[in-house]
Amino acid sequence: MIKLKQHPKYDTIVSWGKLISITGSAQIIIQAVTFASGILIIHLLSVKEYAFYTLCNTMLGAMIVLSDSGISTGVMSLGGESWQDKEKLGTVLATGLELRRKYALLSLLVTIPILFYLLLHNGASWLVAFLITLAMIPAFYAALSDSLLEIVPKLHQKIYPLQRNQIEVGIVRLFLSAITVFFFPLAFVAILAGGIPRIIGNVRLRKIVYGITGEEKESDPEIRRKIIDISKRTLPSVIYYCFSGQINIWIISYFGNTTSLAQLGALSRVVMLLSLISVVFSVLIVPRFARLKNDYSILIAFYTKMIILIVFISILVIITLCFLSEYFLYILGHKYLGLDKELILVMIGGCINMIMASGLSLYMSKGWVMKHYISVGFSILPLIVGCLIFDISDLVGVLYFNIFVAITEMIVHVGYGFYRINLLRNKQAE
After folding, report:
1. What pTM did the predictor assign?
2. Is the dihedral of CA 159, 160, 165, 171 positive or negative?
3. What is the number of domains present in the chain?
4. Are 103 and 242 in contact (CB under 8 A)?
């Protein structure tokens, strides 16, 4: 035992162990509450209403990504460089928030007409489409700032207050969903019940952030220029990925039917359990990678270990689900029994996307941006080929299509991370 404590890696392992156990325990609670809320809504809503709910949440995700357009990447990159200077970090955050509000209007103008059309296409009335769109605004408003605000406590590894806030938001959402959707089993009510707690959590998150950086700062023109530069380089890819990220939902909503759309939405609830891993990764790993010096030997070792770790976890998750698929379907309810094959295919696609997103978030935290004609070009080709190979009017066909596209994107983005790190070796050799 004494020899073990004297090992040079002992303190590091103990430190990581404590961080992972604390972060992991809190995330288990957060994901359990979120999962419970999702299951409650699945059971209370009819298949048709849940199809509308799935479509709205998917569009909300696209709106959030489009309104960000690389701003969070710029804030994480610049914040990682100046995280020890609280004054400058606050200025970086203020500049990012200002830009995010301006981008939000463009996002609304692009996505609202598309959401309206798809809702009407899937059988919603004009009144229902209007109420669903209106109910989405609170969640969208909160999302404009919370993803940026979280960067500050993540960089300072102030994990406990951040996760406590997330737990409280999740509990309020569960309680509000239970008492509202039970009496009014409508999609717009469920969406509204999820958005209001996010606004409350957003207010508390600001208190946490400004406790670190001090009072709210003014934006800075030079920082704005740097963030916009990163945003310009990422914007074409962002526009593409905000819709391709949930390509299976878009395809089913247009070529399929409300039953298939609801089934895919329900199965995706199980895949959301992967967010436990993704959040721990984004909270503990990505900020540390952003703070590392641009030294080849340090970055290649860290990046390789993290990719291997996330691949190993993904394989373990898929194997486990193969044995437990019936239990998860039972939890979803009788409307979704018998979808064992579909559930496993959804999880495989989710795991591949998680590996891709891990590599992407690591290299982008350094401000490295792949040229859009490369990233989009390598993504459009498998979309075209996949549409020719698979039956995209059928749920199983769409899931195979999703896996095919995800594999290509994983290879591109994980490979690009290795490529950018390797460039550092060439520079150091010179």
Report:
1. 0.67
2. positive
3. 2
4. no
